[in-house]
Model the fold of this input.
Amino acid sequence: MDDQQIVEYIEEHINLNDLRNLIKSNPNMTKLKIVIYADYDGGRIDDGISETLASMPLKRLSISMNVLRNQHFKILLQSKSITNLDVGGNVITDDGIIDICNNTTLKTLSLAVTPVTSIGMKELAKSKSITYLSLFNNFYADEDDEKEYVTDDGLKELLTNQVLQTLIISGQPLRGNGLVDIKHNTSLTALDISRTQFNDECIKYLLQNYSIIDLNISDTLITADGITELAKTNTIKSLKITENEMAINEVSLKAISDNKSITYLDISNVHLTTISPLTATGLTELAKTNTIQTLKIAGNEKAINEISLKALCDNKNITYLDVSRNRHVFKKHLIDILATSKLKKLLLYGNHLISGDIASLAKNETITNLDLANNQIDNNGAIELAKNKTIKFLDLGSNNIRSKGARALAKNTTLLELSLDNNIISRKSAYMLSRNKNILSLNVKYNLFEITNIDNFMKRNNTILVFSCNVFKYNPIDTKQLTEVESVKYTKNLKTYKDKLTYKINYIMTNPYLVKDINGIIFEYLNETLTLQDEKIVYL
Done:
C-alpha cells in the first residue's frame, strides 16, 4: 500500500490472523479502526499486537469493544504518535489510568462504557495533553453486583484540569454538586451532561462559567424554569435540550428566542405531555429569534402547523431546519411552505412523503443540502429532484427509487454527495452514477446488485472519493484477495485527489451547516486543516 493511503475503516468483523496480516502489510498506515470478531474466551488483542500498534506511526486508532484490558491500554499509551484513541467498551479499569499523565501526545480519548470511576477521573485530571474526553455511561459492577459510578466528586476533580476543552460525561447518576467550582475552569468549551440527574440547581453554576459555548443538557431533570434562567447566558452558542419534557414551554421558548448568543438549538423529541407541551404557539414565538441559525425540532408533531412553519420559514436567520420524524403532520401543503423558504439545509427524514409531496421542493433554488431518507419517494420524485441545480448533498436512502430515477440523477451536474442506499436500483444504474464527474461521495449499498471486484468497477472513475456498496467478496488487506463480507466503504488515495478534496472543503467552509455531512476521509482531512480562524464551523 502507498505510504499516503489511509486504512480508515474496517466495517466488517476481522479475526486476529487477518489483523496481524493487515498490520504487517501496511506498516505506514496512520488511521485504523478495528472490529474484532471474537467472544470473551478467545481472540483477544494480545501484548504482541498492542506493542506493534504502539510502534506504528498511527495517529488515530479506534479499538473499541475488543476485550482490551489494562495491560494493553498501558502499552498503547507508550505510542509516540497516537493523538486520537478510542478504547470505549473495553475492560479498562481505574488501574489502567494510573500514570496516564506521562503520555504527552494523546489529545482525544474515549473511555465510554468502561469501568473507569471517579478514582480514574482524578488521574485523568492530571493530564497535560488531553483536550477531548468521553466518559459516557461508565460504571463498575463488583462481585456482589454493587455498582460504583462516576461521582460528583470525580467530576469536581476533573474540572480542575485547565487543558481539557471537550468533556462528555453523560449517562451518569450525577446530581450537580460536581459543577460547584466550574466557574474557575477557563479551558472547557464543550460540555455534555445529558442523561444525568442534574436539575435547576446546577444552572446557577453553569451561568458562572464563561468559557463553555457548546452545552448538552438533554434528558435531565432541568425544568422550564431552569431553561428560562439559562437563557440569560451571553456565551453559549450551541444548546441541546432533547428528550426533556419538563424543559420546554412557551415561557422558556420566549426566553431562548430573546437570547443573543445561541445560534444552534436542538429541541428534538420533546415528547408532549400535559405538563409542558411544545405547542405551535411556542414554536411560533421561538421563530422570532434573531440569532438562531440551526434549529432541530424532529419528533414534535403537535408543534408543527401552517402558522408555526410559515413563521420559521419567514425567519431569514434560520438556514438549517430539521423537521424529521413528524410523519403524521407533513403533507403536501406544509412541504409547499418549506419550498418557499430560503433555507440552506433541510432534513425531512422519516415523514412518509411521496413523490407528489415534494414536487414544489424540487424547484427550490436555495437548498444545498436535502435529507429525504426513509420516505416513500419513487422514480417520479427522483426525476424531479434531478432537475434541481442547487442541491449538492442529497440523501434518498430507504425510498422506492428504481433504475429510471437513478439514471436521471446520474445526469445531474451539481451533486457532490448522493445516498441511494436501500432502494431498488440495478448494477448498471449504479455504474452510470459512478461515472458522474461531479459526485465525490456515492452510497448505493443494499440495492439489487453485488459487486465482485470493486477495483474493476471503479477503475474508470476519476472523481469519486468515497464509494459505499454491497460486495460479494472483498478483503480489507488487499482488494485482490477475496473473502465473504456484506458491505464496504471504498476510499481513494488522499494525495491523488487533493484538488477535488480542496474544492469540497472550500465549499463546506462557506456553508458551515454542512459540516456533519462530510463522509469518512473528507471529515478526517477537514479536522486536520481547521485553524482557529475557522472556529465558526466547529459545531460537530
User: Anything to note?
Assistant: Residues 407 and 429 are 6 Å apart (CA to CA). The chain is about 25% helix and 10% strand. The domain at 93-222 is CATH 3.80.10.10 (Leucine-rich repeat, LRR (right-handed beta-alpha superhelix)). The mean pLDDT is 79.
